[in-house]
Amino acid sequence: MKYQAYADYKDSGIEWLGAVPTHWHLARIKYIAELTPKKPNVQRNLQCSFVPMEKLKTNSIVLDEERLIDDVYDGYTYFQNEDILMAKVTPCFENKNIAVAKELVNQIGFGSTEIFVLRVNEEASNRYLYYRLQEDSFMDIATAAMTGAGGLKRVPSEVVNNFTAAFPFVDEQENIAKFLDHETAKIDTLIEKQQQLIKLLKEKRQAVISHAVTKGLNPNAPMRDSGVEWLGEVPEHWVVRRLKHTSKLQSGIPKGKDLTGKINISVPMLRVANVQDGYLDLNDVHEMAIEPEQLQRYSLEYGDVLMNEGGDNDKLGRGAVWKSGVVPCIHQNHVFAIRPYSIEPEWLDLLTSASYAKFYFFMVAKQSTNLASISSTNIKETPLLIPPEMERREIMEFVLRKLEAFENIEEKCSAQIILFQERRTALIAAAVTGKIDVRNFKATGV
What we know:
By secondary structure, this protein is of the alpha+beta class. The protein folds into two domains: 25-167, DNA methylase specificity domains (Adenine-n6-DNA-methyltransferase TaqI, Chain A, domain 2, Alpha-Beta Complex); 217-386, Adenine-n6-DNA-methyltransferase TaqI, Chain A, domain 2 (Alpha-Beta Complex). The chain is built from ten helices and 28 strands. The strands form ten sheets. The protein has a four-stranded antiparallel beta sheet. Strand 26 and strand 27 (371-373) form a beta hairpin. The chain is elongated, with a radius of gyration of 28 Å.
């Protein structure tokens, strides 16, 4: 859709803002909204909504926690219905984790101290300011002004208070906000459809792997009971063998050994974060000091199948084949290196990424709150399905072709998502800086 510009503009006097509609006025945010409103005197025996940082997202707040006001009154950030909540700490701020609070228990909420609260006055619409704070010029200025170290950088409150923007009158602000509500909802729906397609592709990918490595490619092959209750029937000419009879398992090096006064060398070391599902992320490989004689004991070799000991349930047994991207390289004790000697590493990697293997890992894992871990003993007992070598190669080639096709579609979906997100950002920027005139906008269905 082509949008019209306003009829008349004036120079704002602000380099990054440029020209703005003639009837818009410049104001610092502190003159149209109160930052961090004071806590009121309320009945402390009432319940209220509680919002940890991870529950604040772009245009949404997950309200699934309640607390007694007396328990959170001191030490947490206060807000009420219609207040704007905005993350102040990296990376949540850059991710535009900002939303308008609604449907709070008893119309009041408390949350993380890393959340800014803005309460507009009669000069502003909260929905308009919500969009204005997502625009790139504000984001860039605030991000550049962040203070603190590493992952604890925060936007200073004075940067928010003193940010100068152009504002139309309130009724026009509300009209712009309604326009953006409508148009961004359409874009968000398109993004959601692409994300759902990516999810379906991942499920299809899993199904293709699991069927190929447990049933083979010949639908007419005679079947037999595998002897494993949760695995069911497999082609009768396939062998079922424990992992320990096909491979050697190498445990990793534990951290924290005191090397004071000892000769040591620094070498790259793989962590759980480096071992993803089906690939290795080598963008951030840490180094570790070890004694020289430990290098051979913990070094990775080409073709090692890496598997995570645990973490979140989705990390359990997650792994990929080591292709010697970094030499030499060792691995920490939460990453197993499995060295096959009678089957291909790629076949073992497919088997351990199949649904039956993931079920086995989950079944034998030691579970704690939101975490799970699997022992080397249980890894060694993993049942492996082994067809004849020629059939294994045919299955691996088939799966590789299928996965490449899924990957191509997924890449196109991801590219579409980026384009939609860029469109969303550009539309918000154009509307809140007066580059387009939407005063006559009429919604026509989402």
